[in-house]
Amino acid sequence: MGARGSVGRCVLEQLLAHGLPVRASARRPEPGRFPDGVEVFAADLTDPASLLPAFEGAGQVFLYASRKGVEGVVRTARAAGVERVVLLSSGSVIHPTSAGNLLTEGHREVEAAFVAAGDPIVVPIRPLVLATNTLAWAYAIRDMGSLPLYQPDALTAPIHERDVAAVACAALTGATTPALSGMLTGPARISQRDQAAAIGRAVGARIPVRALSRDAALERFSWFMPREEAEAVLRYLDDAAAGNSPATSTVQDVLGRPATGFDQWAADHADEFR
Ligand SMILES: NC(=O)c1ccc[n+]([C@@H]2O[C@H](COP(=O)([O-])OP(=O)(O)OC[C@H]3O[C@@H](n4cnc5c(N)ncnc54)[C@H](OP(=O)(O)O)[C@@H]3O)[C@@H](O)[C@H]2O)c1
């Protein structure tokens, strides 16, 4: 599910590359947006009736977390005989200083709903910081000539969506092990300022960074997310600035190879910043 999402799209590509039979869904699937040979369904996590045709006959399901309607998702997955759900959750669920954060608690509730049901088995996949968050910088980089950042020196270890998808694919196709649900990060911590510099190198431009006050950042983030979510993101950045956003070895532990670095992520996405 969510096969057009940035992680979901990579899950679909990687399962197909392994030659596995895959079906894909979106809430409103448009013709021609999915690879040939993929069976496509319209399915919405908040509408259980729409899920049944997509789930029936599927042994393993990858899906995004939606707090709204999660009981219906669990019930429908069980009724359809799904054996395993690989849930895109969040590393914040197991990150001590993120407890109580609105976004954390939403993911925790979705995980808990599956765990309480017991069937199907749920394997949470828990990225802490997606590198795709920086795509929100594209407008400023392209059109404003400078990048306003809250906590520019905060260190995080952003993870490439392909690595998240690779761990999700391991969870869909292999044995379920606790390592799959470890906190998922990129290979090393890098400040937001240095992430901007890496994007600059990828696009061949210098990207001047200017620091944003908390109030200005709250206002800016509230343009494209509810204010309470914007608060939650700022709290996360404050926590990262206090040194609390780690790099972990989960990708190496699960996949037997290092996680992809931010320079490579920036090179893969350079066109989106031009
Ligand atoms: N940003 C971070 O640093 C971070 C950290 C930890 C966890 N996460 C979690 O990672 C997820 C974001 O991943 P992403 O970047 O791959 O997202 P994305 O590119 O924005 O894609 C989101 C996908 O979710 C699907 N979706 C949303 N609501 C749905 C619903 N009601 N029914 C069915 N499908 C629905 C969308 O499907 P349609 O095609 O139908 O629109 C879309 O494909 C979020 O759950 C977020 O909480 C993010």
From TrEMBL:
Gene3D superfamilies noted in UniProt: NAD(P)-binding Rossmann-like Domain
All residue ranges annotated as the NAD(P)-binding domain in the record: 2-95
Cross-referenced InterPro entries: Ergot_Alk_Oxidoreductase (IPR051604), NAD(P)-bd_dom (IPR016040), NAD(P)-bd_dom_sf (IPR036291)
Lineage: Bacteria, Bacillati, Actinomycetota, Actinomycetes, Streptosporangiales
Top-rank taxon: Bacteria
Species, as recorded: Sphaerisporangium siamense
Protein name from the UniProt record: Uncharacterized protein YbjT (DUF2867 family)
Membrane-spanning intervals of the chain: none
